[in-house]
Write a structure and sequence with these properties.
alpha+beta, Beta-Lactamase, Hypothetical protein af1432, 3 domains, 10 strands, binds fe (ii) ion
Amino acid sequence: MRHASKEIQIVDNDEMLRRMGVVRRSISDDGSTIPSQGADWLDAFLFSSAPVRTRVREMIASTNSNDMNESTLSCEVIPGLHLMVFSRTTRRESTTTVAMFITNEILDSAYFEMLCQAAQLDRILVRSMLEQMNLIQPGEVDRTIEFISLLIRSEGEVSQRTNMLGDLGKQLGESYEEIHLYHSLIGSTSVSTSPMAFLTTVTDELKTVLPFSWIAIRILTDRINLPEDFDGFVVGGDLGRQHPVVSTVAERLALSIDGREPSIISTESDARFEGTFGFSSDVVVCPIAGDSGTIGVLLAGNDASSRDEASNIEMKLLGAASEHVSVFLRNAALYENLDSMFLGTVQAMVSAIDAKDRYTCGHSQRVAWLARELAINCGHDAEFVKRVHLAGLVHDVGKIGVPERVLSKPGRLDDDEFKAIQAHPEIGSRILRDIPQMDGILPAVMHHHERWDGRGYPDAISGEDIPLIARIVSIADAFDAMSSTRTYRAARPRHEVLAEMNRCRGTQFDPDLVGPFLAIDFEEYDKMIHGALHAFESDQEGRAAA
Ligand SMILES: [Fe+2]
């Protein structure tokens, strides 16, 4: 587009000049003149004669020896035939233009015929065509030369600006890519984004923006505290059978890389690529910094060695991306630490409550475990499974507000005592409602004693009106209540509990959840039951001895 608009303008100016009997030519590298596109009889008439050609050569030569930035030389080659040479040198380029023009004196000059003969043109025809043109008057020569210089200069400036615009456009394009990348990376960064999801976005985005066959990120998981499910290696693009090789090399590089700047490593001469094969000759390596030292690398490479070396902008973008990954992972590690601390605090608090009673000792931990297993069996995502686990831990927290004598009363409860027990979901909700991390957990605390048939408490809601998380915790809670010893009865055998679960499908429990619940492998659960009993007994013995 840019080139086309430039050409259109020059053609227009040439046409205008031609009507005044002016023709110009540009100069090639070897100093000869190049006729403009569409050169015609007038060009031939003006440039073909021997005296003109000699004079043009001389003038160009004297222009070349002139070191001025811009110069205009002119002379009258023969009466009525004028030559001017305009040259201009900028930082970018050096251009010389030659222009010839005639005044109407030429028609009466003895040289007219010589010019026609040199151009092999019919003089009657030439004369008639020249007479139809708006030829320059002898008195206008100086002003014409001034005008043509001005015109060529302004064309030069336009062309220079067009080039600058082109450069700017290119820079803008690169900046746009950079901003686009930042934007999509920042858009995918929130503390709740899992490191795996974030790094996948980074590698995919880089793969889209940059001309590499693959982008890989290797994180040394023993150097930074990230969620357990993060395995440390992410790839954008298809590595195919190269996958394990790149993973190995990436780990070697991550363990040995120094500094923080991106670099290009030649796979042929670097020992860390020993025993590997099929790499391109170069791999871009960007270290990912942790709080104390390197925690990983971002790599960019190609299948074939045909590609040019990575450009500055590519290196810059890869460097920026690895910086961003570093910031994200350090935040994720902080978040993970906070999250573990929070969970630890909740567990300690809940254990303290459970430990008050031999019969509920470990109850919340077991309900949390069962609820989590059920959520996993139902195919829920990691985020929901985590929430279900937390809900299981805190579901009975409201029992803090129920008198201990009621909680541990061996016999049947009277109406008031039963009301006191039934208040624990609401008390629990009140205790937890101001803790931001408990958003999404409260429905489980509030409704884990509702029944599918609507005969539960506190709101007697039924079916899918009961929040899913509450239905899940409810099953786990009932199972643990039946499986563990209570004040009023002994633990029931497993086969009886399972039969009871099946029997209550669609009355007490969500019928769709019973199947996945019965599919749980209860081995771990049984260990928890025995562990809890043992812990309680030794605690009691300890107290007795003291
Ligand atoms: Fe409860």
